[in-house]
Write a structure and sequence with these properties.
single chain, about 375 residues, alpha/beta, Aspartate Aminotransferase, domain 1, Aspartate Aminotransferase, domain 2, 2 domains, seven-stranded mixed β-sheet, three-stranded antiparallel β-sheet, 11 helices, globular, binds pyridoxal-5'-phosphate, transferase
Length: about 375
Amino acid sequence: MTSYFDHAATSPMRDIARAAWLEASAALNPASQYASGRRSRSLLDAAREKVARLMGCEPIEVVFTSSGTEADNIGVFGQWRARTGGRGGRVVVSAIEHPAVAESARLAGEFGAEVEYLPVGPDGIVSDLSLLDRPASVASCMWANNETGAIQPIEQVVARAKETGTPVHVDAVQVVGKLPIDFQALGATTLAASAHKFGGPRGTGFLLARRSPAPAPVLVGGGQERGIRSGTVDTAGACALAVALEESCTEMAAESARLGGLKEQLRAGILGTIDDVVVHTPENSLPSHLYLSFPGAEADSLIMLLDSLGIEASAGSACHNGVNRASETLIAAGVDEKTARSTVRFTMGHTTTEEDVVTVLRTMPDVVKRARMAGMA
Ligand code: PLP
């Protein structure tokens, strides 16, 4: 039996999503004019309407994409390009963005954009918004961080940017299906989501994009999805995404309470049995995330030892070519490099049970002891 604690990386597909995908899997091109195309189109329209209802926006504002990454690229690079024509300008992003946003900003920088970073405090929460007081081509801030789960002051970011007429992109990939979202009320220009984080299929996502100002595309082609995302739309993927979203929104309140309880049990149990643990997840965080450091132990050792015992968790930071790198999110929050290299991120979701938590609590003291004995490189 495996205990899976990596829901922030990807969550197992919900049964309802699998059933919806299978049912719609024969759907053909929704842009075709003949009967089978029209049938596909009506399935796609229904999925779009469902997403719009759950996200508090108009159906036309829903742009289906291949991933959260693609939605973030359009939201940041596409908005910057729409504003600047692809040269110069200014891009403001937080210092703890996922690479899908951070690299989009960096790419705009290669085309002459001035890129500036909103700092974060020791709690991993954006701490100073004054960079937003000068107009920018686009500003971007994640709603909750994928490593720490820290919830960001997104309403303030949007309000502050609005004062100078700066369009705002919100990376809500970790939040959709976990916190209530009302796109209209939020006032952001674009918002990115990814289906596999809430029990939909991997390889599907969406961008919410106001009619105006619309982002420029990053893929060019047949002009589907208002010309914002060309490419034949995956009707079956959209149908599965929509029902997974619906189920996660329906369960949201109950799951929030359940996972919050499990998280507290995990946190208190680990802190009660293991010395010298650093908690990186602040109070104001998603109920699903618990990000810890065990100074003196290498993250790789911890992850491999856990894996050998059937517990699947991640270090939280990117692992490049097998080399454990310190998390940039933690470095931005002022954590020292060694502590930032001794992390384990436990993230929970719809399949997580109390038994999973008990399994971690039973094994963790010995795992940390062994990893600390092995030491750090
Ligand atoms: N943004 C955040 C905050 C994420 O956590 C992720 C995935 O880990 C992404 C964007 C990218 O989503 P996708 O895997 O669908 O490309």
